[in-house]
Write a structure and sequence with these properties.
It contains 18 helices and 18 strands. By secondary structure, it is an alpha/beta fold.
Length: 507
């Protein structure tokens, strides 16, 4: 009987599986049969000194996949970086080191630092299957991580990625817990703080389930996918930046956990804290302000939940050596007028340019956050506090913040004006009254169905705000889309489901 090789040629499948490495093999592949590989099996792929563990998908109609070859998803291809015609070896992987620790957590046992370190290393090494990742996320959901475990998980997440170093002195940073569409304060805050002469190298995320992340919005105005060396040059020149953190390998386990957490919609205080603070510690921050909106459709929905989360954040930050402060804010409705990358960018620029039509709620919230950060800096420097907001407002009103923002954009690769969508539809008030509620989740859903964040110009433009009185037929919001089909899709959802605006009719 002829010897069957355990090596196959690698080709690029051109399939985006996000961060999950996937390998595609033919159903009639000799290697699959000899090794007993089946669909969703974990397969170790070795190419020279590089090795990954990927999930197997079996191709039953293999016309596109030639015999003797295996196709790699984008994540797997990038991890192995094969040369054309490269031959890789395939085998069954060893069981992950952390399997026993995950099982113990499922059964309610406390884990120590070593156990969390093993789990996070296996996550980053892609040695855990989707089922094993989901089991770990579920085992930590709710209040199943205590304070010590939260610190241990956070430390393990920092240890398994790159950590930026900025030398002596303060490094300021901010984070918003989230849940408010349009709450794009970061570019404004970075511009104000950098204009004050402080350092604020801001790494931001792209959207996962929201209509826009800060990186998506910033990318409509300047490049954000900077390598660490390029980011450092921007900060050295201008004192601040707004770049995408996904390409910097900061606490990479966080992104992999989020991929599982979001579809499950699990609310884990400990994992949220680890997610926030691991990224801040890895980014080299020393002083962090955390904005926590509280509202019925925000991520944090009650005062009691906010204070519990605040305590866990501050305890964990102290253990990591971070100087952190939490600011509770109004989370009752969206911020600004635009929801979606380009629409939010227009709001940011209107505030920085001091335009008469600039959304005042976005301006005031950005000033509050920038002022609080400047107060933290003044206290650390031994100077007078409680003047931060006045300083922030002066820097904004004088045009210094706008000039600094434009300089940062130029340093990151050049400024460009955000675009506008070609297709729009206005949704109007069904009756007269006062706007009593704008559902954050529903209005965000409409923006996403219109194409945001993938379509940069898509989203929702608000025409009415909380507390505003409207007459029947007045515009409430406007759907923006880049294609007619996406406009219809979003409008159909808006009309068929509960309206995102609740208008209390006049007596």
């Amino acid at each position: 009987m002829p010897h069957r090789s355990k090596r196959l040629a690698l080709i690029r499948a051109g399939i985006d599986t996000y961060r999950q490495p996937v390998v595609y093999m033919r159903a009639d592949c000799d290697l699959c049969r000899s090794e007993g590989f089946s669909s969703l099996a974990r397969v170790e792929i070795t190419l020279g000194a590089r090795s990954i563990v990927a999930t197997l998908n079996v191709v039953t109609e293999g016309a596109w996949l030639p015999p003797g070859a295996a196709a790699l998803s984008e994540a797997a291809w990038e991890a192995l970086s094969p040369e054309p015609g490269a031959m890789a070896s395939f085998s069954h992987p060893e069981p992950p080191v952390s399997a026993d620790a995950i099982r113990a957590k499922v059964y309610g046992r406390r884990l120590d630092q070593a156990a969390f370190r093993d789990i996070v290393r296996d996550i980053v090494g892609r040695r855990l299957s989707e089922l094993e990742l989901a089991a770990f996320v579920a085992a930590c959901a709710g209040d199943r991580l205590d304070a010590e475990e939260t610190v241990a998980l956070t430390r393990a997440m920092v240890e398994t990625g790159r950590r930026l170093e900025w030398g002596e002195g303060m490094v300021l940073d901010k984070h918003c817990v989230g849940g408010l569409p349009g709450n794009r304060t970061t570019p404004i805050v970075v511009a104000i703080v950098a204009a004050s002469g402080r350092r604020i190298p801001k790494t931001s995320s792209r959207a996962i389930t929201s209509p826009a992340g800060t990186a998506d919005t910033m990318e409509t105005m300047a490049p954000v996918a900077l390598a660490a060396a390029a980011m450092r040059k921007v900060v050295e020149a201008e004192g601040g930046c707004v770049v995408w953190g996904g390409g910097l390998d900061l606490a990479p386990a966080d992104d992999l956990l989020i991929r599982v957490e979001r579809p499950l919609d699990f609310d884990s205080e400990g994992q949220m804290v680890a997610s926030i603070l691991s990224k801040k510690a890895a980014a080299g921050s020393t002083h962090v302000l955390i904005d926590m909106p509280v509202g019925p459709t925000a991520k944090v929905r009650s005062s009691a939940a906010a204070h519990m989360l605040e305590a866990r954040l501050l305890t964990t930050a102290e253990a990591l050596g971070l100087n952190a402060r939490v600011r509770l804010s109004d989370g009752s409705g969206p911020v600004g007028r635009g929801i979606g990358p380009a629409l939010e960018a227009h709001d940011v620029l209107a505030v920085l340019r001091r335009a008469p039509h600039a959304p005042q709620d976005l301006r005031e919230r950005a000033l509050d956050i920038a002022g609080a950060l400047l107060d933290m800096a003044a206290e650390a420097e031994g100077g007078p506090a409680a003047q931060g907001r006045e300083t922030a407002q002066a820097l904004l009103d004088s045009g210094a913040a706008e000039a600094k923002f434009m300089a940062i954009c130029a340093a990151q690769g050049g400024f460009s004006e955000p675009g506008r969508a070609a297709h729009r539809r206005v949704e109007r008030a069904p009756h007269a009254g006062a706007v009593a509620q704008i559902d954050n989740r529903r209005i965000a859903r409409i923006a996403k169905l219109a194409g945001a964040p993938g379509r940069k110009n898509a989203g929702v433009l608000l025409h009415a705000s909380l507390g505003q009185r409207v007459d029947k037929g007045d515009p409430l919001y406007e759907i923006h889309a880049e294609t007619p089909g996406e406009l219809e899709w979003a409008a159909e959802y808006a009309g068929a489901r509960a309206h995102p605006f609740r208008i209390e009719a006049e007596a």
